[in-house]
Specification:
about 425 residues, mainly alpha, 2 domains, two-stranded antiparallel sheet, 20 helices, about 45% helix, about 5% strand
Length: about 425
């Protein structure tokens, strides 16, 4: 036998050995023990005050939003989350003993929330924001457990995910966690006051605001270097919450409080889409907590540094509000007069809450027209922002008509450059919304 085949075989064996060791090492790192199942707690096993506190936390964390299929049983799972890696369906978190968490101990629940590991030891996909929930206190996690385990059990088998091999191998999530999960409860900043720290705890932990408002890297982790810089989520552009936010008027503490408490402000408009669900979820939080969130995000957005030109901006917006209220030759102006002016026209000294001023709305001044197009197509429901107020959908308009309307509003209400390829963008949004 010549020397070359011997060398080749040794190299091959060495490579195979390294692969085996690597796989064994990965699974050693990934292995987590199962936690013994329990008998489902009896009704009345948890104190009423714990359940009540847990209900508030579940609302603040929007648990029902992601764990409920539209029209389905609350918390029974099955909600489809479309990611860059495939569709992941949320799980059943009712206390059903077979398909839900009825046989999960509190220790198993806490481990899932903090480490992203299920009761049986399998790793959860980071579509579940355990990277935020790891910051939640023991007290709050215990109260949340008490609330969920007190719900009505509902049998709902898990729906299959569409994440392809090898990304669907749960053990690989351990590598993701080594790179991106920073475990540990929220640590207060001693240089900040109590309200700021409470707002930071809610935003970074329970309410996981960065999950929607922070862009992600190639493997789906939030980019720490771009916290709250804005991202696309559920077909909506979640705007930046930093000073890069495009809103003409600063999001002051008072504006943030009003928006998060009521779902709308006269200066910024109404919550719609995913953000409307956020406002509904926060509705059970006490005023002090909403105020704390406002304090925190006013600081994140450097509102104090942006608030000097409010009168000039407001006067300019109200002056532009009259554009399109007279018959003009522009096609977009004609559409605005026919379909929009009756509800969106404002005059000095200030816009009205029930008449959102388009010149002040971030959907019109942002770099991406997606939010404006979606609102035009689908309208605003009575249960979105302002209670009882609504905007009808205009999906019957053609792509070219909606594009001309958006171009007209952008040109007459903002000083921003025109959006490119608007008609194609309208067609794209319409196609994504209908799934065709």
């Amino acid at each position: 036998m010549t020397r070359r085949p011997i060398v080749f075989r040794r190299v091959l064996l060495a490579v195979l050995g390294l692969l085996v060791l690597g796989v064994a090492g990965l699974f050693a790192i990934a292995w987590r023990p199962a936690i013994a199942p329990i008998d489902p707690p009896a009704p009345g096993a948890f104190a009423a005050d714990r359940i009540a506190r847990g209900e508030v936390l579940a609302g603040a964390g929007y648990c029902a939003t992601c764990h409920t299929v539209p029209g389905g049983v609350r918390y029974a799972g099955g909600y489809a989350m479309r990611t860059a890696f495939g569709t992941i369906h949320s799980t059943n978190i009712t206390p059903d003993p077979q398909t839900g968490i009825g046989r999960w101990s509190e220790a198993a629940f806490v481990r899932a929330m903090r480490s992203g590991v299920a009761r049986d030891g399998s790793h959860l996909f980071p579509a579940f924001p355990f990277d935020h929930f790891t910051r939640i206190t023991d007290q709050d996690l215990g109260d949340l457990y008490a609330y969920l385990m007190s719900r009505e059990p509902s049998a709902a088998a898990p729906k299959p995910n569409t994440v392809p091999f090898p990304l669907n191998v749960r053990a690989l999530q351990a590598g993701w966690k080594l790179l991106f999960l920073r475990q540990g409860p929220f640590t207060p900043d001693r240089t900040r006051d109590e309200a700021w720290n409470r707002g930071a705890y809610l935003a970074e932990g329970v309410s996981h605001c960065g999950a929607c408002h922070t862009p992600r890297n190639a493997v789906g982790a939030e980019r720490r270097d771009a916290a709250y810089a804005g991202a696309l989520i559920d077909g909506w552009q979640a705007p930046a919450l930093t000073d890069a936010n495009p809103a003409p008027l600063a999001w002051t503490e008072e504006a943030l409080y009003a928006y998060l408490r009521s779902g709308a402000t006269a200066e910024h408009g109404s919550a719609v889409g995913s953000m409307a669900e956020v406002v509904h979820g926060l509705s059970k939080l006490p005023d002090a907590d909403i105020r704390a969130l406002a304090v925190y995000f006013a600081d994140v957005g450097r509102a104090a540094a942006r608030s000097g030109d409010e009168r000039t901006v407001l006067a300019g917006a109200l002056a532009a509000s009259g554009e399109g209220t007279r018959q003009e030759t522009d096609r977009g102006a004609g559409l605005y007069l026919a379909a929009c002016a009756a509800c969106h026209y404002n005059r000095a000294p200030a816009p009205l809450l029930a008449r959102p001023e388009l010149a002040l709305n971030s959907a019109l001044v942002g770099d991406d027209p997606t939010n404006l197009i979606r609102v035009v197509l689908h309208g605003v429901g009575t249960d979105d922002g302002i209670p009882g107020a609504m905007m009808p959908p205009f999906a019957h308009l053609g792509d070219a008509e909606i594009a001309s309307l958006a171009a007209y509003l952008r040109r007459t209400r903002t000083g921003r450059a025109p959006w490119p390829d608007l008609e194609a963008k309208v067609a794209e949004v319409r196609r994504l919304d209908t799934g065709t």
